[in-house]
Amino acid sequence: MQFGIFTVGDVTTDPTDGTTPSEHDRIKAMVRIALKAEEVGLDVFATGEHHNPPFVPSSPTTMLGYIAAQTSKIILSTSTTLITTNDPVKIAEDFAMLQHLADGRVDLMMGRGNTGPVYPWFGQDIRQGIPLAIENYALLRRLWREDVVDWSGKFRTPLQGFTSTPRPLDDVPPFVWHGSIRSPEIAEQAAYYGDGFFANHIFWPKEHFQQLISFYRQRFEHYGHGTADQAIVGLGGQAFIRPKSQDARKEFRPYFDNAPVYGHGPSLEEFTDQTPLTVGSPQEVIDKTLTFREHFGDYQRQLFLMDHAGLPLKTVLEQLDLLGEHVVPVLRKELDALRPAHVPEAPTHASLKAASLKDASVEASV
After folding, report:
1. Which of 249, 336, 234, 312 is nearest to 285 (CA)?
2. Do the strands 159-162 and 149-151 form a parallel or antiparallel pair, or are they unpaired?
3. Could you report the average pLDDT of every consecutive run of 10 residues in the chain (366 residues)?
4. Is the whole-model pTM more than 0.85?
5. DSSP letters of 299-333?
C-alpha cells in the first residue's frame, strides 16, 4: 500500500491573518513539502497541473525534476497531467527524461482538466475532452512502447517514422493512473489498458465513487487483466490533524469556511460527515480512512490533500509530521494485513521492470 500527498498548488489568502504568499513563496513551499513527505516516510508526492491563477504548478516535470535531485526514495507523480491540452509527444519526452533523472521513481496520473478556458489557450475545444483524452493517450502509449511510430489522427499532425527520445528507462514506460471524478469513459479507458484508476475522492459522497470504481473493476476483468479485485485503484482524501479533535476543528474551521473550493457552503460538520474530509485526531483519521476499504475494496494508493486553503507552510509541515508518525504506520499495517495475497501491490518501476524481464524470458523460451 502506498501513502502520499498531492497538491493543487493554489495561492490562497490565509483567512486568519490576511496574508497571501507570493507565487515564488508558494512554489518553494511545495518543494519543501515534498522533501518533508520523504523525510516522514511517505511513498508518493504528486503535483497538479494548472495554467490559470490562483494556481502555480504549470510545469510539473520541472518541479518534479528539481525535487528528484534532492530526494532518493519518494515516488514523484502528478495529479493530474492534462492529456487533453498537452501534446502526447511532449508528455512522452518529458516523463521519460524525468524517469532517467529520478532513476525510475516516476509515474503519472492522466486527467482531462475541468477548467474550460484552458482548452482554447492550447488550441483545443473542451467539448472534445473525451475524444482528445482517448486519442492522445493511445498515441502516448505507442510512443513509449514502439521505437518508430507512424500515426495519424484527428487532433494533431501525423507522425512518420518518429522516435520519441529519450526512450523510457529500462524500456519500461512510467505507470499511468487515470484520474476522474465523474467520467465512466475514463474508467473504461483505464480498464482497457490495464492501467490504474484514481478516484479523486474528496468532494462527493462515497456512493458516487463506488459506482465509478465498481465499473472500472468490472471492465478491468472484462478485458482480461485479472479479477475485479486485482484492479489497481487509488483514492484521494483530505485531512487536518491535531493531537486533540477539538483543537483540529477550531484551527481548521476558518480555512474551511473561506476555502475557494468548498467555503460558504455546507458546514464543516456536514462536509466531514458526507465526504472523506477528516478534521480531528490521528485516530479519527485512521478510523475514517479504514472505512475506504469497506466502501471500495482493497486498493493500492492513498493520497491526502493537506496544503490548500491558505494553510501556512509551518502548519502543513506539522500535519505531515503527524501523518507520518501517527497515522500512516497504523494504516499501512492494518491495510496490508487485510489485503489478500492475490491482490497486487501498487506498481513501481522495479516491479514493472521485473515483469517485463519475465515476459521477455518466457517469449525467448517459446
Report:
1. 249
2. antiparallel
3. 96 96 98 98 96 94 98 97 94 98 98 80 87 96 98 96 98 96 90 96 80 97 98 96 97 92 84 92 97 96 96 98 98 97 97 90 70
4. yes
5. -SEEEEE-S-TT--HHHHHHHHHHIIIIIHHHHHH
